[in-house]
């Protein structure tokens, strides 16, 4: 088969051709985050140092095509601590509390938690402190949503 631009469904690919196509597709997907965003697995993350309320931070992330970041593992949490850097001690995440419990703004399931014992879900009423933030040294914290903090946006690498 030459360099014909038309797809030929009768063409059978060699094992090497399949490996090459597979490699380039997944390499491109893995590194397809916009400039300034950081890639981890199939997600892109952006640390924004300008302090905002939780609501304004979420709105900013939506404008960029994402949401405030959810966290699904210790590995992701450690990565977010790393991109937050040493000069910032807090950053908004996408966690928020409703009467049914804690949820992520991006709709991900809330199956992993990393609460700092000082901010545990039983230590404070959820209605008084309904928004979650990352602490670079101690796990998650919670506060009123109006507190200005830097924040972390996330989006799928496949939507970029």
UniProtKB/TrEMBL annotation:
Q: Which InterPro entries match?
A: C-type_lectin-like, C-type_lectin-like/link_sf, C-type_lectin/snaclec_domain, C-type_lectin_CS, CTDL_fold
Query: Gene3D superfamilies, per this entry?
Result: Mannose-Binding Protein A, subunit A (3.10.100.10)
Coiled-coil region list: none
Record's keyword terms, sorted: Disulfide bond
Question: Which SUPFAM superfamilies does this chain map to?
Answer: C-type lectin-like (SSF56436)
Task: Using the record's annotation, list all stretches that form the C-type lectin domain.
Answer: 40-154
Q: Name one Pfam family in it.
A: Lectin_C
In terms of PROSITE patterns, this protein maps to: C_TYPE_LECTIN_1, C_TYPE_LECTIN_2
Would the keyword Transmembrane turn up in this protein's UniProt record? no
Name of this chain's protein: C-type lectin domain-containing protein
């Amino acid at each position: 088969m030459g360099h014909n631009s038309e797809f030929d469904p009768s063409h059978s690919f060699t094992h090497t051709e399949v490996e090459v196509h597979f490699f380039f597709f997944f390499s491109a997907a893995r590194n397809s985050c916009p400039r300034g965003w950081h890639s981890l697995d199939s997600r892109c993350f952006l640390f924004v140092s300008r302090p905002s309320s939780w609501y304004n931070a979420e709105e900013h992330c939506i404008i960029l095509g994402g949401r405030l970041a959810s966290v699904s593992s210790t590995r992701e949490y450690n990565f977010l601590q790393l991109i937050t850097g040493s000069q910032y001690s807090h950053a908004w995440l996408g966690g928020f509390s409703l009467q049914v419990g804690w949820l992520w703004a991006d709709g991900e399931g809330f199956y992993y938690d990393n609460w700092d014992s000082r901010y545990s879900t039983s230590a404070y009423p959820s209605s008084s402190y309904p928004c979650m933030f990352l602490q670079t040294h101690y796990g998650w914290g919670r506060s009123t949503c109006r507190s200005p903090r830097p924040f972390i946006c996330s989006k799928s690498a496949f939507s970029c």
